[in-house]
TrEMBL record:
Domain Endonuclease/exonuclease/phosphatase: 26-289
Pfam families referenced in this protein's UniProt entry, alphabetically: Exo_endo_phos
Gene3D superfamilies in the cross-refs: Endonuclease/exonuclease/phosphatase (3.60.10.10)
Signal peptide: 1-20
Domain of life of the organism encoding this protein: Bacteria
Keyword Signal applies: yes
SUPFAM superfamilies from the UniProt entry: DNase I-like (SSF56219)
Name of this protein: Endonuclease/exonuclease/phosphatase domain-containing protein
Keywords of this entry: Signal
Keyword Phosphoprotein tagged: no
Organism of derivation: Agrobacterium vitis
GO molecular function: catalytic activity
């Protein structure tokens, strides 16, 4: 697990530059990233300082290809990755009512490619992932997230790298909760689609699925086994410590939630603060088909210097908008900056001959 212990540390980190000997791939769910500071996307607005933090973190990764999730539009992605990258979004964003130039209260997947290698990278789309979701609230069905795919040649082998963000709310793969069964069905279908898509890649090519799978894949080896021959998960569990170093003041957070949203906690309900440490390992590289002549390793970046959690008050609700408690506790969400997810970064290196 790599730490960014202070802002100055970012400038001191050194990595092997991208070359014929090394390929670096990163992935980060930046959680409802709006196009600009002080503009909210799904209720999450960030300061200019936080945007600068996000850009500093991404710069420190020194990645050739970056899979991005939960981005509102092209300007937000460009602000995050900086001028050294070109950004490519999923089809669903490029064809929305804003043509992906402005936020429209939805979130999308994207791929950023370092400009110095863009002539070696082809961009494709995995639109099949963007299936219709018909939820329990009987709202109009909507398409879930598709995936842009970077195809790069490394060590004389083509590697397909989709930016993946599968349907949320079904980390275990099954549920007895009627409100979540539609989410589980969509997530399962998306894994079926990925399995077929990987099997359809040309013989000899490799695949690196990069992103947020919304599944606890360390606990689902049968699912992983379907995602390509000898599929492996990265980073390892012992290299993950996202938000583990942050101290949550739960007493203060609960009090703030009661002030922010008093009407939600009627009838003796009390806030149950949901933190980024609670949703487990759901961000992965799923790697299959890499040749034995290369070595792969990955890490998760913990952003100690930049963590901030506060402003709780958004709560879990039913379809009619009323509170949806668990006994006397009501799940309550706060704002996590820079994100409730931490970046992951992978290095693929040619083995010495």
């Amino acid at each position: 697990m790599r730490k960014l212990a202070a802002a100055v540390a970012i400038t001191l980190l050194t990595f092997t530059p991208a070359s014929a000997e090394n390929l670096r791939v990163a992935s980060w769910n930046i959680a409802n990233l709006a196009s600009q500071p002080e503009q909210a996307l799904r209720g999450h607005a960030r300061s200019a300082e936080v945007y600068a933090h996000i850009n500093s973190v991404i710069s420190s990764l020194d990645a050739d290809i970056i899979a991005l999730q939960e981005i509102g539009s092209i300007p937000g992605a460009e602000r995050a990755v900086g001028q050294d990258y070109d950004v490519y979004f999923e089809t669903r964003c490029m064809e929305n009512d804003q043509r992906c130039r402005f936020d429209n209260d939805d979130i999308y997947t994207a791929i950023a490619v370092r400009k110095s290698i863009k002539d070696k990278v082809a961009i494709r789309q995995l639109d099949e992932l963007s299936i219709l979701h018909d939820d329990e609230c009987c709202t109009p069905p909507r398409h879930v997230r598709g995936s842009p795919v970077a195809v790069v040649e490394f060590n004389d082998q083509k590697i397909w790298i989709p930016s993946v963000h599968l349907k949320s709310a079904c980390k275990e793969g099954t549920t007895n909760n009627d409100d979540l069964k539609d989410d589980c069905a969509v997530n399962a279908t998306q894994f079926d689609i990925l399995e077929r898509w990987i099997a359809d890649r040309p013989e000899g090519d490799a695949v690196i699925l990069a992103g947020d799978f919304n599944r606890l894949l360390f606990e689902a080896p049968n699912v992983v086994a379907r995602l390509g021959a000898n599929a492996q998960l990265f980073p390892a569990m012992d290299k993950r410590a996202c938000w583990k170093g942050y101290r949550f003041d739960f007493a203060a957070l609960k009090q703030q939630a009661l002030v922010n949203n008093p009407s939600a906690y009627q009838g003796g309900l009390e806030p149950r603060i949901y933190t980024p440490t609670q949703f487990g390992a759901i961000d992965f590289f799923v790697v299959s088909g890499l040749r034995d002549s290369v070595a792969a390793d990955a890490d998760q970046v913990e952003m100690d210097a930049y963590y901030s959690f506060g402003d709780p008050g958004s709560v879990l609700t039913k379809c009619d908008g009323s509170s949806n408690p668990f006994g006397t506790q009501l799940l309550t969400f706060g704002r996590a900056d820079p994100s409730d997810h931490c970046p992951i970064v992978m290095s693929i290196t040619k083995n010495p001959e």
